[in-house]
Amino acid sequence: MSKLNAEEYKCFEDIKTIREDGSEFWSARALAPILDYAKWENFFKVIKRAMIACENSGHLVSDDFPEVRKIVNAGAAVKPVKDYELSRYACYLIVQNGDPRKEIIALGQTYFAIQTYRQEVADHFNELDEDNRRLVVRGDIKQWNQMLAETAHKAGVITNEEFAVFQNAGYIGLYGGLDVEDIHRKKNLEVGQKILDYMGSTELIANLFRISQTEEKLRKDQVNNARKATSVHYNVGKEVRTAIQKIGGTMPEDLPTPEKSIQQIEMEQMERLRNKAKKGKLMLDE
């Protein structure tokens, strides 16, 4: 599958709708042009193929493809047209059944595959052990950090020096005045070891919230200079810290540092997979 960058990620995120109950859906009418389908008739053929795949997988089509009617302008008049409030799984099936020659279809396959997997993981997050929780959240942070870097650049954070100051500001806000070097020192890490790779799941989640909320605020407020962007990052970090204080949580700098790095956990998991493969219990790609 094609690599998904932050800009392409946002084209799917921007058309997502959140209902009052917190559930999400994508309008089929909004998704069609994103996937480069100019004619609804052609896109509807893809939807029908996706519905068949949905039914064959044991899902209820009415759950993942609920039909709705929306009013659109038709010259001087208005008329109702058919639309669908697509679940994430429905979108995944649609891009799987779309025209593979379209680059955006390949990108959509990547996006919705990742998001469907993450939702499955999230549904069972509390059942995971600490190591696997760390892996899940660290993976999310990698993607959000990429998005934040691109959004910050558009907001005026251009030079390496500006970006270093910008990054530090978020940590300073969240960690009560401690910057990256201070946190690195407090965790007793060696040169080259990244602080995010030595955080437990609770600390990682706090940082994920800092990163995602900063990215969204920079975008929504249309920040256009490095100083303002840095201030936003600091303030978001500080607000996250305040929220932790209000619920009586442990401050991030006081949380324990795990003995294993994220890389060590990944290596151990790969070793377990290799051992299963040797025993004939698992097939691994060469």
What does this structure look like?
The chain is of the alpha+beta class and 286 residues long. It is built from 12 helices and 4 strands, in the order H-E-E-H-H-H-E-E-H-H-H-H-H-H-H-H. The protein has helices at residues 6-13, 28-34, 40-56, 61-64, 88-96, 103-123, 130-154, 160-174, 180-186, 201-220, 226-246, 262-278; strands spanning 16-18, 24-27, 67-74, 77-86. A 4-stranded antiparallel β-sheet has the order 1-2-4-3. A hairpin with a 2-residue loop joins strand 3 and strand 4 (77-86). Helix 8 packs parallel to helix 11 (226-246). The radius of gyration is 22 Å and the shape is globular. The two termini are 17 Å apart.
Low-confidence stretches at least 5 residues in length (pLDDT < 50)? 281-286
- Class by SSE composition: alpha+beta
Mean pLDDT: 87
In angstroms, what is the radius of gyration?
Answer: 22 Å
Number of strands: 4
Strand order of the largest sheet: 1-2-4-3
Order of helices and strands: HEEHHHEEHHHHHHHH
Helicity range:
55-70%
- Terminal Cα span: 17 Å
Shape: globular
Total helical elements:
12
Strand content: 5-15%
Largest sheet: 4 strands, antiparallel
Helices and strands in order, then pairings?
Blueprint: H1 6-13, E1 16-18, E2 24-27, H2 28-34, H3 40-56, H4 61-64, E3 67-74, E4 77-86, H5 88-96, H6 103-123, H7 130-154, H8 160-174, H9 180-186, H10 201-220, H11 226-246, H12 262-278
Antiparallel strand pairs: 1-2, 2-4, 3-4
Helix pairs in contact: 3-5, 5-6, 7-10, 8-11, 10-11
